[in-house]
Write a structure and sequence with these properties.
By secondary structure, the protein is mostly beta strands. It has no helices and eleven strands.
Length: 196
């Protein structure tokens, strides 16, 4: 929930920001009132997870490639874009690109009895298969700095984005990627900055 804004500090907490596995967006939104021209320190904290899975199968020395990628990033917005003197614009909170490349011979099936031409009767009957699944969850924090914000009532937003991408185009390849974000929080504090 949202905490009451004061002239010095404001915060907002959200349980879930992105639940769609394919990605999407969410917003942490907090109002703050400043009495004078001020600098603000904006802290964004997120728990996020990325799942990537790649699988290939093949035989006869064929090369197969399967790629899955998941990303979570945050972009700051102040007063609906009217104030732009802040840094940085966007920060990557989590990124994974998983690439699985295989060159497989296949499964050999041979006679059960040993004969002089034993090797001539071995044949490749089945595909070899490799599957790789990774799932991670992490909590990250980053501080943004808003400079020279004039007096008055302001709105600070942390726009949270998640995206996925996959590349597996043949019948011998499969892949998937999922992202989720939440809980998350934003804190805004009025500070006295020193500018070099």
């Amino acid at each position: 929930g949202a905490f009451a804004a004061s002239s010095k500090f404001a915060a907002h907490v959200s349980d879930v920001l992105i639940t769609n596995g394919a990605g999407g967006s969410g917003t942490l939104n907090v109002p703050i009132k400043t009495a004078n021209k001020s600098d603000l320190l904006v802290g964004v904290s997120l728990q996020s997870s990325v799942l990537t899975e790649t699988k290939t199968k093949g035989k006869n020395g064929d090369t197969n490639l399967s790629v899955a990628e998941g990303n979570v990033w945050v972009c700051l917005e102040v007063d609906e874009g009217l104030h732009t003197d802040f840094a940085p614009d966007c920060v990557t909170f989590e990124m994974r690109k998983q690439t699985l490349e295989t060159k497989l011979s296949g499964v050999l099936t041979c006679p059960t009895t040993d004969t002089p031409d034993f090797d001539d009767f071995c044949t490749i009957t089945d595909d070899e298969e490799v599957n790789l699944l990774l799932e991670t969850m992490s909590a990250n924090h980053f501080n943004f700095v808003i400079r020279d914000l004039g007096p008055g009532e302001h709105t600070v937003k942390a726009n949270v984005f998640g995206s996925t991408d996959t590349d597996c185009t043949t019948l011998n390849e499969s892949c998937r990627a999922e992202v989720a974000v939440g809980p998350g929080s934003i804190t805004v504090e009025e500070v006295r900055g020193t500018n070099d």
